[in-house]
Amino acid sequence: MLLRYGGGRRPERKGNVDGVVRALIGFIVFGGAGLFAVQLLHADEGPPIRGGTGASIDRHLLGGFRGGAVSREGGARRIASSKEASSGSISSGFVGLKEGVKEETETGDDAVTRGAYLARIGGCITCHMDPDGGEALSGGRALETPYGTFYVSNISPDPDAGIGSWTLEDFQRALTKGKSPSGRLYWPSFPYASFTKMSDGDISDLWAYLRTTEVSAKKNREHDLPIRDRLGVARRVWRLFAFRPGPLPDVPGKDDVWRRGRYLVEALAHCGECHTPRTKIGALRRKRALAGAPYGIDGYAPNITPHERDGIGRWSDDDLETLLTLGMKPDGDFVSGSMAEIVEYETSKLHPDDVTALIAYLRSIEPLPSSGERHSDKHGESPADEDEEEDGD
Fold first, then answer.
1. How many CB atoms lie under 10 A from the CB of residue 309?
2. From 35-44, 82-91, 193-202, 358-367, the region with the lowest mean pLDDT
3. How far apart are CA 73 and CA 260, in angstroms?
4. What tens digit of pLDDT does each residue of 206-248 get?
5. Which of 2, 137, 237, 363 is 20 to 30 A from 153 in CA distance terms?
6. Is there a contact between 361 and 251 (Cβ–Cβ < 8 Å)?
7. Using 50, 70 and 90 to split pLDDT, how confident is the model at 76?
8. 243-250 long-range CB contacts below 8 Å, 24 or more apart?
9. pLDDT of residue 134
10. Among 173-177, 236-240, 374-378, which range has the highest average pLDDT?
11. Rounded to the nearest 10 degrees, how much is the dihedral formed by the CA atoms of 339, 386, 241, 311?
């Protein structure tokens, strides 16, 4: 999933409005249970995509499935099911995607099925769908940033316009090292600084799925950047201060649920790419991880640390689950803009065990106050950040 700054929003979808209206009607008529039921019915509309172990939460709930313990090893490959889970329905899976992503009716724990879940949670679908309604993974979305406008690339299996001529090794190099098959460095608008922490198994499964999607010959568009930034020097400087290759280091004493949550937040779902503030060169301020960023989703990405005043410290686990699955905040308001897309296409499709793991991890991190003003200067920094270290930490 490419880094989401304030711009580059896709045109509003009528379906989002309909979903809110239906939810409100359900709430008025039946109360909270009605709101949830209407959301489930609404989620079943639209063409399906591959299901399996990572099937969407609405399908799991309808089938009585709540899952078992989560094993961190191998990412999505290792979701250990309890006896209750083994008797539940896990075959239907992903719903609501645009036309162009092939339907998968076969069930089972195969690489393509796992990869479909990873593509959803990793943001591949959300970012790489054609903003004009074209083929699902043909790219073209504009990402407006303080550093210029980046255009999302075609990742369909087309051998010329997409990644059809790539090998698995090429794909792994792109995600873990930020390099194209020819060795060209990618811009950090492609969040390989987070994807470098993905497991080899998950990368292989994601690759297996992407090769089954619809082919699109849509050509990639050149980024609109200042002349000074078009040279490779800028990317090399960024990598020097901001890129730390390799998997997540082990943290002794943590259980599998925490480890899975950390993997989701820091690697696969790469939450910090939006919710962590950056230095003037675009390096994440790791000492302020997830404390909110002036240039994030639609101009400001909120603080999601467990800080009582500025973050989610006062939210219950049910509040967080409701936000992730329905997009509704504790005050009854609904998320909008890019976050609404994230809920619709990503977090609402999280496996129930992954929802639990993600919440557990967010609860465990350091509670940090939000830094300074919500409005940024031209570099995407708030005034309170000006005196902080510029070394990427």
1. 10
2. 82-91
3. 8
4. 999 999 999 999 999 999 988 767 777 889 988 998 999 989 9
5. 237
6. no
7. very low
8. 243/178, 243/188, 243/192, 243/193, 243/196, 244/193, 244/196, 245/176, 245/177, 245/196, 246/196, 246/197, 247/196, 247/197, 247/198, 247/199, 248/197
9. 67
10. 173-177
11. -30
The pLDDT value given to residue 372: 58
3-state SS string over the chain? CCCCCCCCCCCCCHHHHHHHHHHHHHHHHHCHHHHHHHHHHHHCCCCCCCCCCCCCHHHHHHCCCCCCCECCCCHHHCECCCHHHHCCCCCCCCCCCCCCCCCCCCCCCCHHHHHHHHHHHCCHHHHHCCCCCCCCCCCCCEEEECCEEEECCCCCCCCCCCCCCCCHHHHHHHHHHCECCCCCECCCCCCHHHHCCCCHHHHHHHHHHHCCCCCCCCCCCCCECCHHHCCHHHHHHHHHHHCCCCCCCCCCCCCHHHHHHHHHHHHHCCCHHHHCCECCCCCECHHHCCCCECCCHHHCECCCCCCCCCCCCCCCHHHHHHHHHHCECCCCCECCHHHHHHHHHCHHHCCHHHHHHHHHHHHHCCCCCCCCCCCCCCCCCCHHHCCCCCCCC
pTM of the model: 0.70
Dmax (CA) of the chain: 60
> What's the Cα-to-Cα distance from 207 to each of 89, 114, 116, 213, rounded to whole Å?
26, 10, 10, 10
Q: How many CB atoms lie within 10 A of CB 353?
A: 25
312 close to 322: Cβ distance less than 8 angstroms: no
Owner of token pair 């990402």: 143
Cβ-based neighbours of 163, under 8 Å, separated by 6 or more? 154, 155, 156, 157, 170, 171, 210
Instruction: List the single range of 9-13, 178-182, 199-203, 271-275 with lowest mean pLDDT.
Output: 9-13
Give the pLDDT of residue 295: 73
The region of weakest confidence among 63-67, 102-106, 211-215 is: 63-67
